[in-house]
Amino acid sequence: MAAPPEKTLKDLSGVWVMVSIPAQAPYFASKSLIPRPTEQDALRRHRPNPADGNPPECPTSSQGVGWWLRKAIALATVTLTIKQYTSADGLTHIDIEQRATGGISGTTENRTLDWEYRDHKDGIFGEVKGKSRWVKLSDIEDDNEFLKKGWLDEGDKYVQSYVESVGNGWTANQIWGFEKLGGVRYYVRHVVVRKGDDWKEARLVYDYQKK
User: Which residues contact 31 (CB under 8 A, 6 or more apart)?
Assistant: First the structure.
């Protein structure tokens, strides 16, 4: 179902399932996670050498995820159970339990929006460190306009989540917000993954299920 109007970046608590919107989203990571790029997107995206064996449309290929696991992720149903709250010190916390079908290990991500690095061991991506914050689009320190475009204007601040791999050399920059796709309002993440001179984009779309 569409994201109800009471669900905003101030209250993401509930259950969300990743969905595919092939005719709407410009770029995803695989068959079920990414809609097709538009011609304009294809022209402006940097494409790595095809000889490296990694499909250019799959951000996880830059994150050290093997081919078989990438295919499993592409076919899996990914579910997020989110609890969002404000602590006594006024900081926003977003705790997420992520589950996937197909035997893929789940993970728990506890974010504090204070822009301080925290270590995390992910079942898929390994050792990482990340930080999160509230941010205005004009304050995003990234020259990729994909992170800043397409959002519904529902307030002047968005959620930014930035992750660095410990040992694999990649970074992932995410902006969270809401978009209207095919006339339906969704919770969406724009993601840019970089490793060396290679970069890839993904738009992750989530359908609201229940509280």
Answer: 20, 74, 75
Q: Specify whether the CB–CB gap between 156 and 148 falls below 8 A.
A: no
| Burial (0-12, 13-18, 19+ Cβ within 10 Å), 40 | exposed
User: Any residues with CB less than 8 A from the CB of 37 and at least 6 apart, and which?
Assistant: 26, 27, 45, 57
Judge whether 200 and 7 are in contact, CB under 8 Å: no
Signed CA dihedral, 175, 177, 180, 186: sign only: positive
Separation of alpha carbons 64 and 165, rounded Å: 10
Instruction: With CA atoms as reference, report the closest residue to 130 among 79, 94, 84, 87.
Output: 94
* Whole-number Å distance between alpha carbons of 175 and 153: 14
Q: Mean pLDDT for each consecutive 10-residue tract of the chain (211 residues)?
A: 93 92 42 35 32 35 43 64 98 93 76 96 80 96 91 95 90 95 93 87 90 73
Contact 131, 116 (CB under 8 A): yes
Is the overall model pTM greater than 0.90, yes or no? Answer: no
